[in-house]
Design goal:
Nitrilase/N-carbamoyl-D-aminoacid amidohydrolase; alpha/beta; globular; six-stranded mixed β-sheet
């Protein structure tokens, strides 16, 4: 299978509508890929907090409409990164959108772990509650978003649900770039699965982005890594490598399930 990660430059001088058009054109240019991935909150900016509420949209809003058409035109599975979702009956959510090659919105994932330590996303967004996996014709995808990378229990849950390829859109800042690459490799090694980690480039909300989107194989080997600017990574993957890695080094069968915290004495 062929995967393309679009490390989109999020420039505060570009309108959300102009960026939707540009992102859709970049998706269409990946015709021939099986899976295309965009970053987290690319339409508004992952740190542009003041833009979230006025720019929030529903699951049939302008970003979903543009990405559905782009997926259909390119004939690809499209993980369209995430949007600021306005739930008519509740709070905003950081919600990822997955489209089939026919343009159908097949899966959504509301980010569980909200970054900000009592500010920003942590207070402006609601928390997702459901793990999401998606069966495609080439592999089973497990969906996670940015800060989720720091929580291995989420990835272990996705593993147990059948994940072979983790898809992780992000808006990860430059000052913690080493953590970004470390966690992407760690999750791949722990779960013996591919990790497709797609970050933003540029600066938004005054926060410089790390870029360095990367594709990691089940042994933790980085197959491709972007620089700091806008870039498209295209990599050919063998989904069968997941089963082979798990058979050759069957560490997952030695898991101790249901470990309890020690009792206080």
């Amino acid at each position: 299978m062929r995967a393309s990660l679009i490390q989109l430059d999020v420039d505060p001088g570009e309108s959300a509508e102009a960026r939707r058009v540009r992102a859709a054109d970049l998706v269409r240019a990946q015709h021939g890929s099986d899976l295309v991935v965009l970053p987290e909150l690319w339409a508004l900016g992952g740190f542009a907090y003041e833009a979230w509420s006025p720019g929030a949209e529903t699951l049939d809003g302008p970003t979903a409409e543009a990405m559905s058409a782009a997926a259909r035109d390119a004939g690809v599975w499209l993980h369209a990164g995430s949007i600021v979702e306005r739930d008519p009956d509740g709070p905003m959510f950081n919600t990822s959108l997955l489209f089939s090659p026919s343009g159908e919105l097949t899966h959504t994932y509301r980010k569980m772990h909200r970054f900000g330590f009592d500010q920003g996303e942590a207070v402006a967004m609601g928390a997702g509650t459901e793990l999401v996996v998606a069966a495609t014709d080439f592999a089973t995808l497990g969906l996670a978003t940015c800060y989720d990378l720091r929580f291995p229990e989420l990835f272990r849950g996705l593993l147990d649900a059948g994940t072979e390829i983790f898809v992780v859109p992000a808006a990860w800042p430059a000052r913690r770039r080493d953590h970004w690459t470390l966690f992407a490799r760690a999750r791949a090694v722990e779960e013996q699965a591919f990790v497709l980690a797609c970050n933003t480039a540029g600066t938004h909300g005054g926060v410089e982005q790390a870029g360095h989107s990367l594709v990691v194989d089940p042994w933790g080997v980085v197959l491709a890594e972007a620089g700091t600017g806008e870039e498209v990574l295209t990599v050919d993957l063998d989904p069968g490598a997941v089963a082979r890695a798990r058979a050759d080094f069957p560490v997952l069968r030695d898991r101790l399930m249901g470990i309890q915290a020690p009792q206080q004495r």
